[in-house]
């Protein structure tokens, strides 16, 4: 099969198209013929070698954790999926080598879910990592409740775009931080208040908007945003980060909960996201499509920051699927 690979760490310049062996299907796995994948910061971090201490790596290495396509084969223990069925998955594995910037990927069936009816493969490919990250941060860790207030940093990004919508769906008041040109975008996603972090200090703005702070803060960026987000929590608040571990001593001193969430595959939660999309309560982030062979350029754009929504890499030219096309596999 064809795939984008790196032969050593050193950044995105070494990413190139190559012919590699197809993955070997396990008894509990699904083989996905990948139509589209999407770019996440984890991808260029893997290419840079930033995660070499967290995961074992093997070369040649195929980046990519999001996959959307059709079931090409299934293991002998898998009965819940049909050959040809449109599916998607977060393909994070214990060892980093067989990623999704490829024509095929194998993943345990428990991580796989049917894609939402009516979505193109490209739109559906934008959802797994960011959707599961937002879900696990807001609900598994933070236990966000209706009537609470949630602060979503970098709300126009991939995770932020989904987090704003999920928090609003859960009944929370949503405060978003983003640049001025993205204010209309995040308001359309459901944000109640939007802070232009380039013009106003978000700590001051939160005090102005709430008086006593927010119940949940989701930090999706680095720098001083994470430690300063502790300052905006009300008593009993929760700070959840996807970029680094918060200072536990500082959190304890303020009487709040703080932690780091590293997204994990979860087929049942993906099915929850599918249902929300099909009911009109959740929409994919804005996407920019690029062909797979332009993956290095896409990763550089992601690394430079300020991407609205997601960059999607298309591998096979599939047209959008109708609800009838998808429901025949239900």
Key structural traits:
330 residues, alpha/beta, Quinone Oxidoreductase, Chain A, domain 1, 2 domains, six-stranded parallel beta sheet, 11 helices, 28% helix
Query: Ends: how far apart?
Result: 29 Å
- The beta-strand count equals 17
- Encode the helix/strand succession as letters: EEEHEEEEEEHHEHEHEHEHEHEHEHEH
User: Into how many domains do the coordinates divide?
Assistant: 2
CATH architecture of the largest domain: Alpha-Beta Complex
Q: Estimate percent helicity.
A: 25-40%
Q: Output the number of helix runs.
A: 11
Remind me, CATH topology of the largest domain?
Quinone Oxidoreductase, Chain A, domain 1
Q: Main β-sheet, in a few words? A: 7 strands, mixed
Unreliable parts = 318-324
Radius of gyration: 20 Å
Mean pLDDT: 94
Secondary structure category: alpha/beta
CATH-defined superfamily of the largest domain: Medium-chain alcohol dehydrogenases, catalytic domain
Strand content: 25-35%
- Give the overall shape: globular
CATH class division of the largest domain: Alpha Beta
């Amino acid at each position: 099969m064809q795939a984008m690979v790196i032969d050593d760490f050193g950044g995105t310049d070494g990413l190139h198209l190559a012919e590699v062996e197809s993955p070997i299907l396990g008894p509990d796995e699904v083989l996905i013929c990948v139509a589209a994948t999407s770019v996440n910061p984890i991808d260029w971090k893997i290419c840079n070698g930033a995660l070499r201490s967290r995961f074992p790596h093997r070369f040649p290495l195929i980046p990519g954790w999001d996959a959307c396509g059709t079931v090409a084969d299934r293991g002998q223990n898998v009965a819940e999926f049909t050959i040809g069925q449109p599916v998607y998955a977060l393909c994070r594995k214990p060892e980093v080598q067989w990623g999704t910037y490829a024509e095929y990927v194998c993943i345990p069936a428990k991580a796989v879910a049917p894609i939402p009816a009516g979505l193109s493969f490209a739109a559906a490919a934008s959802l797994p990592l960011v959707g599961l990250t937002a879900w696990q941060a807001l609900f598994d860790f933070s236990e966000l409740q209706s009537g609470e207030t949630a602060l979503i940093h970098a709300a126009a990004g991939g995770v932020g775009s989904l987090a704003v919508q999920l928090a609003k769906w859960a009944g929370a008041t949503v405060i978003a931080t983003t640049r001025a040109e993205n204010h209309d975008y995040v308001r359309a996603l459901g944000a109640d208040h939007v802070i232009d972090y380039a013009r106003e200090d978000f700590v001051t703005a939160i005090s102005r908007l709430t008086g006593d702070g927010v119940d949940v803060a989701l930090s999706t960026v680095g720098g001083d945003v994470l430690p300063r987000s502790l300052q905006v929590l009300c008593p009993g608040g929760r700070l959840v980060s996807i970029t680094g571990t918060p200072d536990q001593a500082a959190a304890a001193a303020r009487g709040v909960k703080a932690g780091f969430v590293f997204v994990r595959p979860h087929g049942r939660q993906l099915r929850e996201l599918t249902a929300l999309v099909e009911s009109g309560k959740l929409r994919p982030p804005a996407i920019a499509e690029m062909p797979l062979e332009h993956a290095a350029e896409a990763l550089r754009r992601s690394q430079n920051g300020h991407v609205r929504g997601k960059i999607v890499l298309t591998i096979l030219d599939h047209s959008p699927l109708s609800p009838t096309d998808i429901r025949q596999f239900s």
